[in-house]
Amino acid sequence: MTYSIALPRPDLMHARGTLRQNTAGTPETLPLFGIDLVNARGEDVVEQLLDGQRHRVAFLNAHCANIMSRDAAYAEALATADLVLPDGIGIELAARMTGQRLTENLNGTDFTPLLLREAARRGLTVYLFGAAKGVAEEAANRLCLDIPGLRIVGTRDGFEGAANDDEAIEAINASGADIVIVAMGVPRQDLWLAKNAHRLSATVCLGVGALLDFLAGRVERAPEAVRRIKMEWVWRLAMEPRRMAGRYLIGNFTFMARAAVHALSTTDGDAFAKRALDILLSGGALLLLSPLLLLVALAIRLESRGPVFFTQTRVGKDGVPFSLYKFRSMHMDAEARRAALLATSDRDGVCFKSRHDPRVTRMGRLLRRYSIDELPQILNILRGEMSVIGPRPALPEEVSAYPQRALGRLAVRPGLTGVWQVSGRADIGFEKMIDMDLSYANSRSMLLDLTLIALTFRAVLSGRGAY
Fold it and tell me: Could you tell me the residue range of the domain that residue 284 belongs to?
């Protein structure tokens, strides 16, 4: 199947002016690594891009940030782009480390089709520029199959076709395209756009990395289930070990170190030391415990059907909800069966806990006894949603039933461990747990945190109150 061809549109050609920064309806931004990242929903960003004004768009992911740190020209290209979109879990983690929250992760493989679907609905035309010979044509065929009504008015490869800027720009402008998708890889595509976007008559110029290779089937895309749990880098490493080892192993650790330094540089006072401790311990634990985490994941999958990880909405500091990560220790229907088991709770008060909970798997009982099921919360700590030390994060329905006094435990970030955990965990009643949490919130210090961390190891080894 060939892609549809549309003739140049003189009305749009005459209406286009010089490249300028749009000021009306500019989306909210979030500062990170010296770049103002767009912090908005994908649909709102699409609306902004298709407002008839000129926009040069780039993406920032962990790999881009690493390159930006050593390539001043590329850093300048990103800094001068009209919009820079956050791409990938690495950027999301880096934002969380600074106490900020992204509205949406606008990765190119999902955002670009969203933009093109709306372009098709409005009758706008597209030009694909980049990748190896033949890739843009194959990507065009795929896009036209996936997006009915999309009008792709031309393609050009990003190697021989990009050797002469004047010829490439003339061909793109002659097509009358409203949107130009540039896929030459980082940093080349953004350097090219920074140099030449003002010469293009298109209203939207977008650098999309390897997207055309994905669309053309030249690079296999991670399954939806893998992307949903945000572990695509592991899958990619298995598919392309040589090329990706440097980027996803060394590169990701380099990026996380850079993100940690950046986060610490933006934190003030006593919070600096606590956040530094959180990042140091959680980052080191993630690195050292990776083999154990992989073995646990395998054991969970072998014992029972369902995902390895369990995510649940919990209430964080100041009552802000977040998604808490755990290794799955229960059967898949655990949430549906919870209401029927409330009467069997072994703890007084609003927090449910049952020593002989029938929903827990055999592997789950082992994980819980030694608190291994809690280890994925290392990611919550890196993201700034939790701390190493603090009250345990409560369920929304538990918080809604709190007496007024208990709301004071929400004044600090919830923790992976804390006073309650080292004092007996599930053997401690609700009222006494609240007393402990309020006492910590009112008297927390670095010395107290270090003491509680040391006591945690003893509590984990003894297994007291863990079930």
Answer: 271-462
Asked if the structure places residue 251 within a domain, the reply is no
Q: Which stretches of the chain drop beneath a pLDDT of 50?
A: 1-24, 226-229, 233, 235, 343, 345-347, 352, 465, 467
pLDDT of 26 reads 65
Integer Cα distance of 180 and 213 in angstroms: 16
> Same domain, yes or no, for 170 and 40?
yes
The reported pLDDT for the residue numbered 1 is: 39
> Two tokens at 233?
């880098």
Q: How far is it, in rounded angstroms, from Cα 255 to Cα 67?
A: 10
291 with 434, same domain? yes
Share in percent of the chain as helix, strand, coil (round to 5): 55, 15, 35
Inter-CA distances, 239 with 135, 225, 250, 322, Å: 20, 16, 17, 32
Cα distance from N-terminal residue to C-terminal residue, the chain: 59
Q: Are residues 279 and 379 in the same domain?
A: yes
Grouping H, G, I as helix, E, B as strand and the rest as coil, residue 179 is: strand
Tens-place pLDDT, residues 108-126: 989 999 999 999 999 999 9
SS3 467: coil
Same domain, 175 and 303: no
Q: What is the pLDDT of residue 234?
A: 54
**What predicted TM-score, i.e. pTM, was given to this entire model?**
0.62
Asked if 248 and 61 touch (Cβ cutoff 8 Å), the reply is no
Q: How far apart are CA 109 and CA 217, in angstroms?
A: 13
Largest interatomic CA distance in the chain:
77
pLDDT at 226: 44
152 shares a domain with 64: yes
Nearest to 184 by CA among 162, 153, 164: 162
Number of domains in the chain: 2
436, 423 in Cβ contact below 8 A?
A: yes
pLDDT given for residue 260 in this prediction: 74
- Residue 1 belongs to a domain: no
Task: Tell me, yes or no, whether 224 lies in a domain.
Answer: no
Q: What does the pLDDT read at residue 152? A: 97
Whether 301 and 420 share a structural domain: yes
Pair (154, 279) in one structural domain: no
Buried b (16+ CB within 10 A) or exposed e, 19-53: beebeeeebeebebbebebbbbebeebbebbbeeb
- The answer to the question of residue 45 being in a domain is yes
**Same domain? 82 vs 205:** yes
Q: What is the DSSP letter of 394?
A: B
pLDDT of residue 441: 86
The rounded distance, in Å, linking the Cα atoms of 277 and 364 is 29
